[in-house]
Amino acid sequence: MSGEVLTQAEVENLLKAMAAGAQEAAAAAKGTGSLLTPPESPKAGWKPKEKITPYDFKRPERVGKEQIRALQTMHEGFARNFAAALSAMLRCMVEVKLTSVDQLTYSEFVFSLENPTCFNLLKAEPLEGNLILDINPSILYPIIDRLLGGGREAGPIARRPLTEIELRLVSRITNLFLKELAHAWENVLPLKLEVVQVESNPQLVQIVPPNEVVVLISFEITIGELRGMLNLCIPYNAIERIAARLSSNTWISYARRQPSQEHVEQISRTLRGSLVEIQVRLASTRIKTGELLSLRVGDIITTKKDIHTPLLVLVEGVPKFKAFAGAYKGRKAIRIETMITDPIEAIGD
Questions:
Q1: How far is it, in rounded angstroms, from Cα 211 to Cα 283?
Q2: Cα separation, 134 vs 138, whole angstroms
Q3: pLDDT of 3
Q4: Which of 170, 171, 283, 349 is the most buried (most CB within 10 A)?
């Protein structure tokens, strides 16, 4: 105001205008019944200001928090199993970590990908529609180089579509991914997964409308110092019918369900062909170190064990049976007498 001084009348007019504006704002707040203004009397049940979250109609949240948590738990286990299988295939240490489980629109997902990329269109019966598996070139080409016998040092990342030979090698990775994914989902829904199309440009494939909600499950793959992303895109309409199965309570009930007779028989058949180490403990005693060093062929070590007491039979180091020594067709043998129910008590025998 370059040196101008207000008169007393002008100052009083400004103060009156400010007071009138404050009264109008207070009256408007009371007239609209705003929840953000506390009542005049604290005794009337005053509450703190409520937090208002804006809702974006372009990105509706159709997947509940329980479903998101169930998907996260399920795919954390999948990441560990896929990392072990991929490590065995590449014969090097591979780390697969679940980074996020988000919901967004299909157009946002497509425009977030690189071009070109490895864009796999999946068929997952009995789910409706298709799923998307995207493998980032920054980790895909080092894996291909490893499959072709390359060393730990990777060359520059190629920015081009995959060749026919590279597609054949990539199919080994995607088939391994689908196998572990079906295993992760088997407690919720048995899935029959297969790759129906592979594209390099993600914008050429549109499985759902651009504004349709999808669930994006992102993994980070680490091989040495190399890192890259692997994305699994599941449209909401594909899992809408089974959304109830993806609740936390249902997930816990699936995990705690009783084993079926078919599973028990399958495990029994597998165990019957297993090779185990069996040991028979004849007796135990204590001798001095000098006596041990002076032992010769034909020497006899005396023990306190009675020949009429049974011997201890251990299976993989665990006491399982009591038996007596003998001979069968000219060979040394044992005859099982009883089964041990408490291995801890039998260790002292």
A1: 77
A2: 12
A3: 52
A4: 170
C-alpha–C-alpha distance, residues 217 and 214, integer Å: 10
Decide if 180 contacts 82 (C-beta within 8 A): yes
Cis peptide before 116 (omega within 30 of 0): yes
CB 160 within 8 A of CB 117: no
pLDDT computed for residue 82 by the predictor: 92
What's the chain's length in residues? 349
Rg, the chain, Cα only:
36
Tokens 């914008």 locate to: 203
Given a contact cutoff of 8 angstroms between Cβ atoms, the answer to whether 82 and 175 are in contact is no
DSSP one-letter string for 165-198: HHHHHHHHHHHHHHHHHHHHHTTT---EEEEEEE
Distance of CA 59 to the CA centre of its chain: 26
Beta bridge partners of 118: 135
Least confidently predicted of 20-29, 250-259, 261-270, 318-327: 250-259
Q: What is the pLDDT of residue 178?
A: 93
